[in-house]
């Protein structure tokens, strides 16, 4: 990709590089200026500081230093600094690309620096990652990538200027492919390690994808590659309030391939669209729409189908779609969310729809009038999970999650699904959904909950409630969607009917 940022940097001609060895060091490593700054503040940035790269650095530093989320912190910084158009696009590419490619970049930097990346002071480390990303993944001229990064290091970690200059010059001696040949384990010897380095994912995530894809490593590579591509924005045209074809015309997008409510947006900031402000549409991955529609369409056994429950509703995307469908079908929805601030987000998302929001623990079914046992015709459990199915949208999540998160999440998933089955009436339908393809969170949580529930459940074939002719749905009865197969996040859905 050729960037405006690269050309501008050349025109700046900033080749000033701090003297080697002039660094102020502590314990042999550059001293950080950043450790004292309050969390996620946007600094004053001067025009001469190359604002897109500086904003990108600040966003990446906030992600690593403050556990911030790039998709939340970056838009705020862009607005505060007043970056728009090509500058904003360049800063966004730098942030998302650098965070996604962190694993591969760190391997290259460790080799170039001849030291563990963990032993480089964080401000210098983040600036080096940004510089190495430009060198290896963007067509920014090498001298521009090096000089702009050294300029950045001079500002954020002055003691590391000479070090950064030397490391980046070493990185620039080879292209990405040459570095891979040198650093990646041979595919035949260590297929997981090979894919992990080539596609910049932790090895445990590569293994999880391989398990979920039946060990087909060609497909695993495709799935990993999708996580490193910019994710398209999907809109959901709200039932009864917008038609997807008309909405696509209005926003210059395209109707979705599978969900009758989906619109693919070609670019731009969806928050500025009148359709979003007027609540005719909301931002929602097409896979999330499909699993919600599957629950809404699966047949209940006899009796009414008007009382619906969303047991994990925050921030409210699926509750809003369920609410729109409920309004058309004469049903009502109870939307439960344990976190108060997220329950408030659900209230905003469902305003004007027949949805009652309850700020409660979803496991409290049967303990109060708002969450009675055995009364709901349809119950959705969109369970808290690792989020490994949405790595293309959350570039930092693959590095933040670990296998150690699984036992607690799996317990919560199991308890929530047991509660959901309890909440369903006999003959009612329960949809168990995760935004993760990890088998522990999908099949294991599902089978454990069914085993522990005092109620008998029948698994419906979820494929029957996804669009006819949709490819790549597997052998059933559960369905795992994938970005590389369906263009959706990797959502999992199981549909159960209570006996
Ligand atoms: C995957 S998110 C749900 C996303 C939501 N369905 C949507 O489409 O916008 C899981 C949600 O469950 C909530 N949660 C976690 N534990 C819960 C519990 N015990 N009871 C109810 N909600 C819970 C989390 O706070 C989080 O908002």
From TrEMBL:
What spans are recorded as compositionally biased (Basic and acidic residues)?
7-18
Q: Where is the active site?
A: 435
Q: What is this protein called?
A: rRNA small subunit methyltransferase B
Task of the protein: May act as RNA methyltransferase.
Which GO terms of the molecular function aspect are on file? RNA binding; RNA methyltransferase activity
Region: Disordered, residue numbers? 1-52
Residue ranges spanning the membrane: these are none
Q: Where does S-adenosyl-L-methionine bind?
A: 312-318, 337, 361, 382
Q: Which organism is it from?
A: Natronosporangium hydrolyticum
